[in-house]
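Exercise 4. Each item below gives a protein and its sequence. For each, produce the structure-token representation.

Item: ABC transporter permease (Aureimonas fodinaquatilis).
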Amino acid sequence: MTSQSAVTSAPDKTKPQAPRKRFTTTQIVDIGVQTSVIVVLCLAWQLGAKMGAINPFLLPALSDVLGRIWSDMMSGAVFVDLALTLYRTLSGFFIAAILGIPIGILMSRVAVFRWFFDPLISVGFPMPKIAFLPIFILWFDIYDTSKIIMVTFSCFFPIVAATYAGAVGQDKWPLWSARSFGATELQTLWEVRLPAAMPQILTGLQVALPVGMITTIVTEMLMGGRGIGGSMIMAGRFADSVGVFAGILEIVFLGFVVVRGLEAVRRRLLIWHPETRK
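Answer:
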């Protein structure tokens, strides 16, 4: 009995193990080159400011900017500004996605929706959306509501355009195959049309999210208040160049995290797609 239990409890060495994810040589080289470029730029920034090659008022030293960010982190001001900017950006972005994706699908399926929205999208897409900010301030308020609606308005157009393009330019053979097996129109939508359009939809979301962040920061600069944009414009009014560049680095960090996060979501949702297998 003891020997049998020992045999059964012993690990099965013949069972194939899942391959560990390893970086390829190309990926290692890419990471090394990108890191080197960032390090060289930071060193040039720091040395140029400290050696007097650049006016420290126009371009303060990187160490001074990082010291300002650290002191703001200790006081909690950075986290408040980052949280407010991220909240406004993501709120407007998700509202635009909830509205834009169904409208893009309906435009590809229903002629009435296409006739109504196609001229609006064609005219509104290239327009500078920030021009509508005074109207939104008059209609709503000077607080978060108008800022979030401004972000929603900016993100709406690329999401609708990408969804419509992905839903229209689909191969007919999967649709015909699904219908030949008796799939209903709703089943065809959820199991064929949406998965086929998903890469294009996610591309539209990846375009819209940075646009939403830019809109958030610009509206904060124009309207004031807390947030990264508001803190930067306040520092600029008091000729605080260190505070302005601290806000720029905070924007870089926040943008990097948000964009990389959406890329991870794309890989997760498109795990079945050939682009993910590559």
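Check: Residues 185-223 form the longest helix (39 residues).
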